[in-house]
Amino acid sequence: MGNWICLIGASERGARAIKSLGYEFAVITVPQAIPSSLLEFARLIMPVSSYATEAVRISLHELVKLLGLPCAIVSFTELGLLPAAELSVELGLPTNNPDVIEATRNKYKMRVTLNGNKKLYVPCITGGPDDIVNGCCARKEEKYVVKPIDGYGSQQIHLLSSPEDLECWRRDHTEGQWLAEPYVNGPEYSVEAVTFGGQHLVLGITEKETTGNRGFIEIGHSFPACLSPERAEEIKAVVCESLSTLGVQVGASHTEVIYDMNRGPVIIETHTRPGGDCIPELVELSCGLDQYRLAIESLFCSEPSQDIKVCYTRGAAISFFECTPGYLSGIHFEAHDISGIVRLNLDAQVGTEIPAMRDSFSRPGYVICTGVDSGDAKKKSKSVVSQLRFQVKPLDKGVDRCQ
Predict the structure, then answer these.
(1) What is the pTM of this model?
(2) What is the residue range of 357's domain?
(3) Given pLDDT bands bounded at 50, 70 and 90, which one contains residue 1?
(4) Which of left, alpha, beta for 197 (phi over 0: left; psi -120 to 50: alpha)?
């Protein structure tokens, strides 16, 4: 067996982690812009038409002919997780069971699995739009959150508060498979962890900020979350129990939780990969631990290679910009105070049309800051957001506006 790893999906941080551990790697990815680290370090890059397991299997077969068998197949991208697990099983390589991946990729399967544990139980309704509306009306809960069972990136999440809301939603959604769950009111967090031999190492808890009932789009994260030790331990315990209930044995995980003041922490969803939105970078900035590197180590070791004590030396935060839809005519940055900025990234370009923000993929940019603690880092990132203003020409009025 070779000393190389097959990486499914163009994950730059994943590639750097593999190299830092001394492994060669080759990449199987759909055609897209390839990060510089992959071009610089990858032995080979194989294009694939999709992340369907059969398509990936064909590309892997070509790599094996050239490089021999890999010692691991990994993915840090949502759509690459299942083929990585299925092909690892076929070759007898370390992995989570594909059933675990399917349960975390499919929100209904995840809920069914977790509901086998009474402490994690959350009632739910699944099916097509008619099934959702009829089920919600029959149960008479005050509010429901409805989302696609295989969605990600804050796509198509709806808060429905009345029979009128349900009927309006049904008129706009005539197909697809959906999941409805009672609305849980409380602050939202995510737990970042790596599992070694079924034992879960929690790197910390991220405090999350969303647009609320305007689609629940995530617009900010700070790490580590400002929590009492007792509440932090309560959240960690529920997350570890959920990971064990799902059967997670190795690798990174990102679990979203809402803390209900009456019930305590409620699992919303979990993923067998690092979180998006640069959350692993916030973790590394705060405590020096690379979740990607640890995830790869977990495939070969039943415990971390060194005694890990999670110690936070500073806080880190990311805030996302919001912009009025229209034509972007200019960007103005006042720059009163830019201390603590790690990176400012703008996806929006002057002279282009800015769409309405409907999910995580339509946010126009972000800023990452560090501070003495997460509260200080969050304050700095919010300050940058307030200082950067988009000059937008609305499509319907033709006059400049600033946000």
Answers:
(1) 0.91
(2) 317-402
(3) low
(4) left
